[in-house]
């Protein structure tokens, strides 16, 4: 369980003082996948760094699994940090070490016996789906594979909490989903708490159970993901939800006579036009179905359809 009570982190003094995190209260139950979303400069990185003691609060209390992280001595922090794993946008792998060497490193630092390190490293390679790649160098891996190494390394010391700092922001959409699914699977299997920061609502929707929306250092809205998606209260949250709406294809119902059907099939068979066709059925003299039009193709797409004599309406 993670608890933040009236936590602030200010930088600078006088007129140049910045409240990177400002009076934040949050409760994150154990085992949850908790998202923190906000635009650049909202304070997400500072917030996540407060959770592993890389930043100390200017005011308030940060408690992670019973340890008051904000008040802990450096020595105490060294003891709790292995139980708080972290993964990063740019993976932060050591280029001079193989996959195996990167994953083993935290266990070497913790002084685990060689045989145990060897056994756990192999286990972790399997867990993150990198079988057969243990001897590869980071430079030989794709972005998604590098992040898999990052995840395995973060799990090496069997943490209770995994912090993810924009962990999928450098990845393409398909790889993003694979990494998110891996994180969700790890959360289920190992029961650890995941806190992730992101500027993409898609990430929140795909794996988070709850979310906090940040703006100017403050948490302006928080709750279960289903509730926030159903009834977003704040303008910033609504803008983030707009990201999803605008990334999804527009669905339009169509009705057309057989002579227009041939033209429509040609349009739908040209991928560059961004239009695809679903569930085309015939009812008497009319074909009915659903068109999916990618947002960037919407204006041109509808014009093309109208030119071809095809009526479209929303529904
Ligand atoms: N070490 C620092 N010294 C001074 N100001 C800082 C420091 N770290 C962060 N800030 C400021 O605090 C504010 C919040 O920054 P933070 O990096 O936490 O936001 P963010 O939401 O993670 O943004 P991004 O996604 O761009 O990293 C910004 O105005 C930033 O300039």
TrEMBL record:
- Which Gene Ontology biological process is one annotated for this entry? amino acid transport
Q: Which GO molecular function entries does the Swiss-Prot or TrEMBL record give?
A: ATP binding; ATP hydrolysis activity
Task: Kindly state which keywords UniProt assigns to this record, in alphabetical order.
Answer: ATP-binding, Nucleotide-binding, Transport
Matching InterPro entries: AAA+_ATPase, ABC_transporter-like_ATP-bd, ABC_transporter-like_CS, MetN_ABC, MetN_ABC_transporter-like, P-loop_NTPase
What superkingdom does the record give? Bacteria
Q: Where in this chain does the record put each ABC transporter domain?
A: 2-241
One of the record's GO cellular component terms: plasma membrane
Q: Does the keyword Ribosomal protein apply?
A: no
Q: Does the keyword ATP-binding apply?
A: yes
In the UniProt record, the signal sequence range is none
A Pfam match is ABC_tran
Q: Which PANTHER family match?
A: AMINO ACID IMPORT ATP-BINDING PROTEIN, METHIONINE IMPORT ATP-BINDING PROTEIN METN 2
Give the UniProt family note.
Belongs to the ABC transporter superfamily.
Q: Report the protein's function.
A: Part of the ABC transporter FtsEX involved in cellular division. Important for assembly or stability of the septal ring.
What name is this protein filed under? Answer: Cell division ATP-binding protein FtsE
Question: From what organism does this protein derive?
Answer: Falsigemmobacter intermedius
Species classification? Bacteria, Pseudomonadati, Pseudomonadota, Alphaproteobacteria, Rhodobacterales
């Amino acid at each position: 369980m993670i608890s933040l009570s009236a936590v602030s982190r200010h930088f600078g003094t006088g007129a140049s003082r910045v409240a990177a995190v400002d009076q934040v209260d949050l409760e994150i139950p154990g085992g949850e996948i908790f998202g923190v979303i906000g635009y650049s400069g909202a304070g997400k990185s500072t917030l996540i760094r407060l959770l592993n003691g890389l930043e100390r609060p200017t005011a308030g209390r940060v408690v992670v699994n019973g340890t008051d992280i904000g008040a802990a001595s450096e020595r105490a922090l060294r003891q709790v940090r292995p139980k708080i794993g972290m993964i990063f946008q740019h993976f932060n792998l050591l280029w001079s070490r193989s996959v195996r060497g990167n994953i083993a490193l935290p266990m070497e630092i913790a002084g685990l016996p060689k045989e145990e390190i060897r056994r756990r490293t192999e286990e972790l390679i399997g867990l993150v789906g990198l079988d057969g790649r243990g001897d590869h160098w980071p430079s030989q891996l794709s972005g998604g594979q590098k992040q898999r190494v990052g995840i395995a390394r973060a799990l090496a010391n069997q943490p209770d909490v995994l912090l993810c700092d924009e962990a999928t922001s450098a990845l393409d959409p398909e790889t993003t989903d694979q990494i998110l699914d891996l994180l969700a699977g790890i959360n289920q299997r190992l029961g650890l708490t995941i806190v992730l920061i992101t500027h993409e609502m898609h990430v929140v929707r795909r794996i988070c159970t709850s979310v906090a929306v940040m703006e100017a250092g403050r948490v302006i809205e928080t709750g279960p993901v289903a509730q926030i998606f159903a009834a977003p209260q704040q303008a910033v949250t609504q803008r983030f939800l707009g990201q999803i709406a605008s990334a999804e294809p527009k669905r339009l119902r169509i009705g057309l006579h057989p002579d227009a059907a041939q033209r429509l099939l040609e349009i739908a068979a040209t991928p560059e036009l961004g239009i695809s066709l679903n569930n085309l059925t015939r009812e008497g003299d009319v074909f009915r179905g659903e068109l999916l039009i990618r947002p960037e193709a919407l204006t041109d797409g509808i014009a093309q359809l109208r030119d071809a004599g095809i009526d479209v309406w929303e529904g």
